[in-house]
């Protein structure tokens, strides 16, 4: 099962996931052109340097899409390189739609017959949690993972995620974010997950006591938690403990995500930067 594969990778390589976010300034810092060719060199070099050193990488689809079809072709190559190097991919697409459209997105990113298929994807539940069913069903059929946005660190997110929805999910409160966590937990339970389930969450590493104040524990979802915000955005092991507690971290349920803190080290420094940050995230007091 995807959750077990990810947890095994974290056991072996540490809890770090590196976002492959080819910002213009990073391409320039690597002395690469702001073109699809520069994007390709940046992405494939990053995969090569990080394979065997981190549990997963998280390509951000938007940075590839902005280059049109040539950029999407590079994304296909990047995902293929992850498979070749046995490096788990979390494709950050944040898709969320209804009906046949969601089904098409699911086939694009979760069906192994697609060149864009990843080991796991991020999705948005804000057109209704049930609208994500095609992604859940295809992930189950092909042993893929799905990370559902629940409680993000951007200030704009609170107006939706913290809102009260009128119904309470037992153990998770009545906030929109809490009901999402509860529904992910139910999904994992219904799949009879052994260890971590294949369905996880996206919860910001910098939200502090946000989940506690809303009355739920994200780790109760039963699946892995993608926690962006480590490194340049200010989160380290202390912040992760504040959000998730020591038990979830020690159990390798939290996939701590960074981008700039590693990629800004340059092509020759990526591996060392990842190892150093990984080591700091395993020092749970």
TrEMBL record:
Swiss-Prot/TrEMBL GO biological process terms: 'de novo' pyrimidine nucleobase biosynthetic process; 'de novo' UMP biosynthetic process
Known EC number: 4.1.1.23
Family matches, as InterPro entries: Aldolase_TIM (IPR013785), OMPdecase_type-2 (IPR011995), OMPdeCOase_dom (IPR001754), RibuloseP-bd_barrel (IPR011060)
Class of this enzyme: lyase
Catalytic activity annotation: orotidine 5'-phosphate + H(+) = UMP + CO2
Annotated transmembrane regions: none
Pathway(s) per entry: Pyrimidine metabolism; UMP biosynthesis via de novo pathway; UMP from orotate: step 2/2
Domain called Orotidine 5'-phosphate decarboxylase: residue spans: 15-275
SUPFAM superfamilies named among the record's database cross-references: Ribulose-phoshate binding barrel
UniProtKB keywords: Decarboxylase, Lyase, Pyrimidine biosynthesis
GO molecular function, a single term: orotidine-5'-phosphate decarboxylase activity
Stored PANTHER family: OROTIDINE 5'-PHOSPHATE DECARBOXYLASE
Family that this chain belongs to: Belongs to the OMP decarboxylase family. Type 2 subfamily.
Name of the protein: Orotidine-5'-phosphate decarboxylase
UniProt organism field: Brevibacterium aurantiacum
């Amino acid at each position: 099962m995807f959750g077990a594969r990810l947890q095994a990778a974290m056991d072996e390589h540490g809890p770090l996931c590196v976002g492959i976010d080819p910002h213009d300034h990073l391409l320039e810092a690597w002395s690469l052109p702001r073109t699809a060719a520069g994007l390709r060199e940046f992405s494939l070099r990053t995969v090569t340097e990080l394979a065997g050193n981190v549990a997963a990488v998280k390509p951000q689809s938007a940075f590839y899409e902005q280059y049109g079809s040539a950029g999407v072709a590079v994304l296909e190559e990047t995902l293929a390189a992850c498979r070749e190097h046995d490096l788990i991919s979390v494709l950050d697409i944040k898709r969320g739609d209804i009906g046949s459209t969601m089904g098409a997105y699911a086939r694009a990113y979760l069906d192994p017959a697609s060149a864009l298929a990843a080991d796991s994807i991020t999705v948005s539940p804000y057109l209704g949690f049930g609208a994500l069913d095609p992604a859940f069903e295809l992930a189950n059929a092909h042993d893929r993972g799905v990370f559902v946005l629940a409680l993000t660190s951007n200030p704009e997110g609170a107006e939706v995620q913290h809102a009260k929805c009128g119904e309470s999910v037992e153990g998770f409160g009545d906030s929109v974010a809490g009901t999402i966590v509860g529904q992910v937990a139910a999904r994992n339970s219904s799949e009879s997950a052994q260890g971590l389930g294949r369905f996880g969450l996206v919860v910001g590493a910098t939200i502090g006591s946000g989940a506690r104040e809303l009355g739920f524990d994200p780790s109760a979802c039963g699946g892995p938690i993608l926690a962006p915000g480590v490194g340049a955005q200010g989160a380290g092991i202390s912040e992760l403990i504040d959000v998730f507690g020591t038990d979830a971290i020690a159990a390798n349920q939290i996939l701590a995500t960074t981008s700039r803190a590693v990629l800004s080290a340059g092509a020759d420094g990526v591996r060392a930067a990842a190892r150093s940050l990984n080591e700091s995230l395993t020092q749970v007091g």
